[in-house]
Amino acid sequence: MPTAIYQKYRPRVWAELADQNHIKTTLEHEISRGQITHAYLFVGPRGVGKTTAARLLAKSVNCQNRKPGVAEPCNECEVCGRIQAGRSFDIIEIDAASHTGVDHVREHILESAEVSAGHGTYRIFIIDEVHMLSTAAFNAMLKILEEPPAHVIFILATTEVHKVPATIISRCQRFNFKKIPADAIRQRLRSITQAEKMNVDEEVLNVIAEHSDGSLRDAESMLGQVLALGGKKITMLEASLVIPRSNLNEAANLVGLILKNDAAGALSLANNLVEQGISVSVFMQDIIVWLRNMLLAKVGERLDLFSRDTLGELQSRLLKDAVGVSAREAQELIDIFLRRRQNLGESPLPQLPLELAIIEACTLKADGMES
Ligand SMILES: [Zn+2]
After folding, report:
1. Domain AAA+ ATPase, which positions (predicted)?
2. Which of 32, 40, 102, 207 has a C-alpha 20 to 30 A away from that of 265?
């Protein structure tokens, strides 16, 4: 059960697709009006729903029961059933990053694009990590895209669009997928735990949401590990066995001490954490994330947009703490931690770069930066 959370709760209809509303709206509109194009390009970070959207699109256009003016697939007809189970002959999924990907595209696509799909349905090629294809494979695809057979649809997905030839991009309708806000991820995790009838502390879901960096897939697989722990109620204590401990709170504490110019307090906090076995690298990253959020809080207007990686109490703390720091100060502090973090690998003592960064940051503060 637990490892399969991601597959088990893969959205079956558009309404279940997490976030990405701009994409949903456009695609639903095109599907319901029958204005399908021959090539789509889904761009965006990993785990944000590109493949899921591709499969939904494939299911919607091929669903036997779908009526004009409706975008959602019925999920009851034979075609829907086959696609849901990953057993449709008309949906060809290719992972271009895999060893066989390149040859696959050339032979598979060139040949099977000529063969028409069954029952007046579309033959749909979903090519994941399409930027990994060889020039030869791209050329083969380009040939088809120039004069696409009526029954063929390409859905190309990539995390690195700059590696996709411009000639391909220009023939596709492009959709930019975004990282999913922590709050949307948390809601999704909550609905899964309810469906699984598991009692998981809100704090656990918050930490997973914050740590997944906008990737729903990562969040769901982390949740799967947490649920595998079993038990009546899963608290942070149990969950900390499998999920990385959030240090954003500690990072916020440390930044607070630096802003008070309390070098001794900051160093002692850092040493306590090191003794508890935290990763210095991850912690310095947390500090940088916290400072970045502060900086954005100083210059940004849309608080909800930039602070969406932080939730609840942490978010109100961020907004409160940001009042006491100037944008320039936040920027210089980020520079210090970024620079010192680069020395982590060559430092004889793992915590030394962190300590030096703290001292440097406090010196900066003492040298009379306005706050
Ligand atoms: Zn159907």
Report:
1. 36-181
2. 207
Q: What is the DSSP letter of 67?
A: P
The token pair at 221 is: 């697989």
- 285 and 147 in one domain? no
Q: How far is the CA of 361 from the centre of ligand 1 (A)?
A: 61
What secondary structure does DSSP assign to 343-361, as a single string? TGGG-SSTTHHHHHHHHHH
> 77 C-alpha to center of ligand 1: Å?
4
> How many angstroms separate the alpha carbon of residue 80 from the centre of ligand 1?
4
pLDDT tens for each residue of 213-257? 789 998 999 899 899 888 778 887 778 777 766 578 889 999 999
Q: Is residue 107 part of a domain?
A: yes
Which residue in the block uniquely carries the two structure tokens 């690298």?
281
pLDDT in tens, 178-209: 999 888 999 999 999 999 999 998 888 988 88
Task: Name 310's Cβ contacts closer than 8 Å, sequence gap at least 6.
Answer: 182, 210, 248, 293, 318
Helix/strand/coil for 199? strand
